């Protein structure tokens, strides 16, 4: 039986976990608190605690029998927490682990002035957070070569999905239409992230790097306007980016401008996106109830 261990059972990882569980996989993984452990075990997930600052006492046992591993925990200033605390545990299971995926971000590419890029583009992060991602990517690829475990990198665009999207933000009164001329972002529905990961598991390629993004990057204010139209409400007023009050992290998202190509996931992995544009995704989410009163 296939078994996956997931470091960091967050939004994207849990979407994959539920799909694999329904497909007959054994699913184990880590969370930060004991309360989440109990909730996930009720769903059939073999959850254990790993806070990232020290080895998880139950992680090694939970890794036994894992054929696949997914790492979705971001690196800290000291480096990747999984490699810091559980490198030896993973290396000791190189005989059984057939696939190891690392979830990264398109942010590693930095700013390209709105130009189209693919996986061959050089990494040039513009924030310390994304610079740490580049180092973590390199560390994981090096670990895979040393341990004999196929490691793949997945650089992910802005994630949205059920309960986490422009419709929900509008309904909560939290959506803003910030306008920075020429600025575009790629996005990807969480279901398509899971689909790409499953496709990679079926066709592992050591050292493979993949952009996980939709077909149509666009201005963020257009997404809010489309969501408002679906809901039948007036969109919030446009706010010039230079006039907006933003946290340093929020402002950093606008410091890089690029359009990410996703040809590799289609051509190499045979992926057909379920939601190729934000309009497809938001339409489906609205039909499912997000944003409705």
UniProtKB/TrEMBL annotation:
The keyword NAD applies. Keywords: NAD. Pfam families: Epimerase. Residues 96-212 form the NAD-dependent epimerase/dehydratase domain. This is SDR family oxidoreductase.
């Amino acid at each position: 039986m296939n078994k996956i261990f997931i470091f960091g059972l967050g939004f994207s990882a849990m979407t994959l976990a539920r799909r694999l569980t329904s497909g007959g996989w054994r699913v184990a993984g880590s969370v930060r608190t004991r309360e989440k452990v109990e909730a996930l075990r009720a769903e059939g997930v073999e959850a254990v605690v790993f806070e990232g600052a020290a080895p998880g006492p139950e992680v090694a046992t939970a890794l036994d029998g894992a054929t696949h591993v997914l790492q979705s925990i971001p690196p800290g200033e000291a480096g990747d927490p999984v490699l810091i605390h559980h490198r030896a545990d993973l290396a000791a299971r190189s005989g059984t682990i057939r696939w190891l995926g690392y979830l990264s971000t398109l942010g590693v590419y930095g700013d390209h002035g709105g130009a189209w890029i693919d996986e061959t583009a050089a990494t040039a992060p513009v924030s310390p957070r994304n610079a740490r991602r580049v180092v973590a990517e390199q560390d994981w690829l090096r670990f895979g070569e040393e341990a004999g475990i196929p490691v793949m990198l997945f650089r992910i665009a802005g994630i949205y999905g059920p309960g986490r999207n422009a419709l929900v933000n509008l309904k909560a009164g939290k959506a803003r239409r910030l306008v920075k001329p020429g600025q575009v972002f790629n996005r990807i529905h969480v279901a398509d992230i899971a689909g790409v990961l499953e496709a990679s598991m079926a066709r592992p390629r050591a050292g493979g790097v993949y952009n996980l993004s939709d077909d149509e990057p666009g201005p963020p204010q257009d997404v809010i306007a489309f969501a408002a139209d679906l809901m039948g409400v007036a969109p919030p007023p446009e706010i010039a980016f230079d006039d907006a009050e933003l946290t340093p992290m929020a402002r950093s998202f606008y410091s890089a401008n690029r359009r990410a190509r996703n040809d590799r996931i289609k051509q190499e992995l045979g992926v057909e996106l379920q939601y190729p544009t934000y309009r497809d995704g938001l339409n489906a989410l609205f039909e499912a109830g997000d944003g409705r009163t």
